Amino acid sequence: MTKCIQIVLIMFGLLMIAAPAWAAGDTSYVFTGAIGAGLVAIGSGLGIGKLAGSGLESMARQPEVAGNIFTGLLIAAALIEGYTFFALYICYTQNPFTK
After folding, report:
1. What is the pLDDT of residues 39-97, one digit of tens each?
2. What pTM value is reported for the model?
3. Are 61 and 3 in contact (CB under 8 A)?
């Protein structure tokens, strides 16, 4: 429950930081792309961190299958990174100033 409350407070803080940018008028969409890119980076960092922690723990418990686990870790990390780059591309292209 504590982690859920922490996530809600972080999201509330991000919205409070972005509120003046959204109230600025026509330039507010620039900041929403930056907030989206920041959330993508945070999410991918958390995902890869969880993946690596779980993978290393499983390798420590069963060293005989460490090669197979490492292969799975590399594939999963590549998929997470690919999704991250795609999401960053979407955030970048939705910015009207980059067109």
Report:
1. 888 888 888 889 999 999 999 999 999 999 999 999 998 988 888 888 888 777 766 55
2. 0.62
3. no
Class of domain 29-98: mainly alpha
Q: Which residues contact 87 (CB under 8 A, 6 or more apart)?
A: 36, 37, 40
- Among candidate residues 17, 12, 8, the one with its CA nearest the CA of residue 35: 17
Q: How far apart are the first and last CA of the chain?
A: 43
Q: Residue 25: left if φ>0, alpha if ψ -120 to 50, beta else—which one?
A: left
Question: To which residue do tokens 């969880």 refer?
Answer: 50
Q: Which residues contact 36 (CB under 8 A, 6 or more apart)?
A: 87, 90, 91, 94
User: What are the structural domain ranges in the chain?
Assistant: 29-98
In the block, residue with structure tokens 């999963």? 76
